[in-house]
Amino acid sequence: MARLQPVRGTHDILGDDMLRHRHIVETGRVIFARYGFSEWATPIFEETRVFARSLGETSDVVSKEMYSFQDRGGESLTLRPEGTASIARALVSNSLAQSLPQKIFYQGPMFRYERPQKGRYRQFHQIGAELIGAEGPLRDAETIAMARDFLVSLGLDEGIRLELNTLGDLSSRLAWREALVAYFRQHADQLSEESRTRLEANPLRILDSKSEQDRRLLADAPAFDDYLNDESRQFWDELRATLKAFGIAFVENPRIVRGLDYYSHTVFEFVTDKLGAQGTVLAGGRYEGLVEEMGGPAVPAIGWAAGIERLASLIELPEQKTTGIAIVPLGQEATLQGAAIAQRLRDRGMVVSIETRGAMKKRMDRIVKSGATHVVFLGDDDLQREVVQLRDLSTREQSEVSVSDIATVLENALSV
Ligand code: ATP
Ligand code: MG
C-alpha cells in the first residue's frame, strides 16, 4: 500500500510550525484582552444556510469553495469556511444580541475547497475578532488598532502596510454599481471571461479581479468616491481622522472590495509584499445585515480575520529559554529512584526527562542538544548512600547532593 498522506490541501502541524501557531494564538489572546475582547469557540460545522445566504450566493466561498455534505439524518451541513457567520449565529442562538456591544475573538480551523498552492490550503486556520454593536467609526478604528497591535507584537511591523477603503452605505453602492455596470457593458469585449459572468451577478467583484486584462480596464472605471453620499463621506472622514488619532498609518486603496457580500463602509487589509500573490495576512470590514440574517436584530459590527499559516510563515519564533533537567539513572534500581525524583521535580514545575537509552556518550550528546541545563546522575553506589551527582552543564561543575535536598538545590540553581 502506498504510504498514507494527509488529504490534498491539508497539512500536519508539527515541531516548530506548531510552536509558531501557538505563539500566534497566545500573542492574540494577550493583545485582545487589552481591548476587552473575550474568546468564543463555535462548532466547526453548521447548518449550510448559516453560510450560504449570509456570505452571498455569488461569493467565491459559497459558489465554489464550501465543504458541504449531508449527514446521516439528511441534513445539509457545511464545514465552516470562515468565522464571522458562526459568531453572528452564536450571538443570536445564545440570546446575546440584546447585550451589546459584544467583543469577541476566535481561532481555529476553516475549510475551503480551493486549489492548493503555497499559502493556500483546504484546511487552514484563522484567528479573528468581531465587535458586534459597533456604533460608529471609533469602533472601526479601535478594532483596526487591535489588529495592528497584534501584528506588531508578532514582530511584523516592518514590511506590512494597512490598506483601507470605504464601500459606503447601500445607496451609495447601488448608485456606483449602476455606473460600473454601464462602463463594463461598454467594454465587455475587453473583460476576462470570468468577469463577464460577474458583470450580471456581482460587478463589484470585478474590481478584485486578478486578471491583467481586467486590471487594464479598471484604470478608467468610474471611481466610487464620486458616488459617496454625504452620510457615507462623513463616516469615511471620521474613520480616517480616528485612525490618525490612534497613530495608525494607512494607505487608501480603492481596489479593496472584499470577497463577501456583507460588508459596508469600512474595508481593510494588512498586506505584505513577502508572500507573492498570497500577500493579505489580515483582512476585515464593517458589516450590517449579518446578525439580522441570523434572526436577530439589525446591529452593525466590525471584524477581521487573519490566516494563521500565512502569519506563521512570516514570524520569527522568540528565543526559547530552556531549563530542562535530565536524570541519568545507571541500572534498574536507579531508574526507579530516578522516576521518584523526576516526579518531585515536576511537582515543583521543572522540565524533566529521564534518559535511559544508549551509550553514555550518545546520551550526553542528546541531553546537551535538548537544551537541558543540569544532569542528575544516579549510580548504584549513590543509591545506597542516598545521594545523586549533580552536574551543571554551563559551568561543567559536578557536586554530590543528597536525594532529600535535590529538588531545593535545583530550584535555587534555576532561579538565579
Ligand atoms: P484570498 O483573496 O487570498 O482568497 P480571502 O478574501 O478569501 O483571501 P478571507 O476570507 O478574508 O480571505 O480570509 C482572511 C485571511 O485568511 C486571508 O487574508 C488569508 O490570510 C487567510 N486565508 C484565506 N483563505 C486561505 C486558504 N485557503 N489557505 C490559507 N489561508 C487562507
Ligand atoms: Mg479566497
UniProtKB/TrEMBL annotation:
Belongs to the class-II aminoacyl-tRNA synthetase family. Its EC number is 6.1.1.21. HAMAP family: His_tRNA_synth. It is found in: Cytoplasm. NCBIfam families: hisS. The keyword Iron does not apply. CDD domains: HisRS-like_core. It holds the Pfam family HGTP_anticodon. It is an enzyme of class 6 (ligase). Homodimer. PROSITE patterns: AA_TRNA_LIGASE_II. It comes from the Bacteria. This is Histidine--tRNA ligase. Residues 29-329 form the Aminoacyl-transfer RNA synthetases class-II family profile domain. It comes from Saccharibacter floricola DSM 15669. It catalyses: tRNA(His) + L-histidine + ATP = L-histidyl-tRNA(His) + AMP + diphosphate + H(+). PANTHER family: HISTIDINE--TRNA LIGASE, MITOCHONDRIAL-RELATED, HISTIDYL-TRNA SYNTHETASE. Keywords: Aminoacyl-tRNA synthetase, ATP-binding, Cytoplasm, Ligase, Nucleotide-binding, Protein biosynthesis. InterPro entries: aa-tRNA-synth_II, aa-tRNA-synth_II/BPL/LPL, Anticodon-bd, Anticodon-bd_dom_sf, His-tRNA-ligase, HisRS-like_core, HisRS/HisZ.
